[in-house]
Amino acid sequence: MAKEEILTSEDVINKARTYLSKEDADYLYRAYKYAETAHKDQYRKSGEPYIVHPVQVAGILVDLEMDPVTIAGGFLHDVVEDTDVTLESLEDSFDHELAMLVDGVTKLGKIKYKSKEALQAENHRKMFVAMARDIRVILIKLADRLHNMRTLKHLPPHKQRRISNETLEIFAPLAHRLGISTIKWELEDTALRYLNPQQYYRIVQLMKQKRDERESYIDEVIDELKSQLKDVNIEADISGRPKHLYSIYRKMAEQKKQFNEIYDLLAVRILVHSIKDCYAVLGIIHTCWKPMPGRFKDYIAMPKPNLYQSLHTTVIGPKGDPLEVQIRTKEMHEIAEYGIAAHWAYKEGKQPSKGSKVFEDKLTWFREILDWQNETHDAEEFMETLKVDLFSDMVYVFTPKGDVIELPSGSVPLDFAYRIHTEVGNKTIGAKVNGKMEPLDYQLKNGDIVEVMTSKHSYGPSQDWLTITQTSQAKSKIKQFFKRQRREENISKGKEAVEKEIRALDIEPKDVLTSDNLKRVFEKFNFSNEDDMYAAVGYQGITAALIATRLTDKVREARQKEQNLEETIEEVQNETVKKKEQKRDSGVKVEGVDNMLVRLSKCCNPVPGDKIVGYITKGRGVSVHRADCPNVQTEEVAQRLLHVEWENGQTDKKQYHVDLEISGYDRRGLVNEVLQAVNETKTNIIYVNGRSDRNRMAVIHITILIHNTGHLKRIVDRIKQIKDVYTVTRTTNS
Ligand code: MN
């Protein structure tokens, strides 16, 4: 791409003629004329007529061999934003497709925002949403930004810095994600020039000094390679690979290395005709020079998510220095340089909108943008989300089927699970990495094969997941899970739950719900008012039992002293009664039959509130299972199922066995905290077993006696509050 020369509209349209039809060229001319009229009497900061800018933008799009509508979009990209032209009139004069492209790059105008940042974020969001609908929007936007960066010297310094920052934060990473490396490099190098001129010119200077020395060495290497390849009849283009200023700058800054340590790395690129030749060349290089272990990467067999393909290796070169080699076909090289633009490139007989759809589908991260933006109401939060995902380093991991999933580095299996699907995330109970069980906070590494284990009996995310997960996507889905119901509902639900818990403690709610007492408790739990506290109970941010316990602590303490002895005696009596009742009566009614022998199955331990089915066993009456118990899913069983239901009104009196599996980070005291949490809910524990594995993953099994599913849920919610608890699952002994 030519940087210095200023193109005229004829230059641009003539260049376009080399690959477009006459009708298309006429269409471009019409677009240019329309823009010229609209921008008449407008001037840029440089003093040039405004139209010069859109013409250069269109020129960049022609260099990328874009389709006519996109180029016309380049000519017209500023007319709606900066002139009296409306979208409607554009659509009338041209077509809907073009109007949509221009709308996508037009900033929001009239609406007032609370701050400049908020407006900026809102503008970016609009652009990303438009881009998710039609990727050509971003190609126009990148061309626009590139020309603005090339002419940045005409703006005052504070604007230069702001625009350069924005370029580094959003547009260069975006170009990278779309694989358009030529634009990415130029954006980065130019931004560096304005953000850190001192370092920029220092690196330029150092590169100049070393150039001759390097070039002669590279030439030597290239000659050697050429003669080797000639011997085996492989035709290849071999060139020294240019290093970019910004990447040198970043390596120096991040790895704290000296210029020489980075720039002395020699790099060559070899372009061949076929994939077969790529591997043949690799073989030859590895025989000539010793490969450095761990440096070979096969991005041909496993393309990067931006579809980059190449073989990478580093060998010890002729002078004993490391020599980086990239080997790829010419097609791969096109994609390496122009990325998604190469797929959009307008070729005869090829409708770009069809070919590119396949390509867009492969950029899965891209499809998710619309998803996220639907869920995030705050544009600034949306941009933060996007920046994390655009900007951080990535790890590439695989599904068991071999699909590549790209995640920000530091991601854990839960991030992976939420990337697959929200429901997969919410129901995750464990993960296998490369076939081996790993804890949920295991940090994923490149190439890991990740298999998420889910259970429909999982009770959903724990509070801890918010700290374990890395991606904003996972975090927002987890938060969403907790806040699923609206605030008002949560408040009233939470209030109801707290009152119920208080009554369960045999205390009249109005006796403890005084404003002083409430204030004491919500402050204790760091809420700013009682409604916030109730809302948190409502969305399960905190349990009602915990609040109720705290609200009633004073009253209970006083009462305890008086009644200590009496209560103990009474409790023992109660227990005995309950045990007798349980033996006699399961609390389940069989449709149309009285006095039937009914047994609750031991495999799934149904409790009131569960959906249940009855199953007639030979000579042992009716066995009652949970409807989703694996043991009643067979066809043979299905024929012997009976309709059964829980008897009303008695469920609070009886107690039922439930098995829970709790997994978490294996630390001192975890088991005790779990037991304590269960005790706080006044629940009897009849069995406990804990074990841990080499990965510091603790698995605790407990069997408890509960009244009904509501009771069970309170216990589970309480356990999920405990730090380091990953999952709580109701288990089935199948
Ligand atoms: Mn512009």
UniProtKB/TrEMBL annotation:
SUPFAM superfamilies: ACT-like (SSF55021), HD-domain/PDEase-like (SSF109604), Nucleotidyltransferase (SSF81301), TGS-like (SSF81271). SMART domains: HDc, RelA_SpoT. Pfam families: ACT_4, HD_4, RelA_AH_RIS, RelA_SpoT, TGS. Transmembrane segments: none annotated. One of its GO terms (cellular component) is plasma membrane. Residues 50-149 form the HD domain. Pathway: Purine metabolism; ppGpp biosynthesis; ppGpp from GTP: step 1/2. Gene3D superfamilies: 3.10.20.30, 3.30.70.260, Beta Polymerase, domain 2 (3.30.460.10), Hypothetical protein af1432 (1.10.3210.10). It catalyses: GTP + ATP = guanosine 3'-diphosphate 5'-triphosphate + AMP. Belongs to the relA/spoT family. This is GTP pyrophosphokinase.
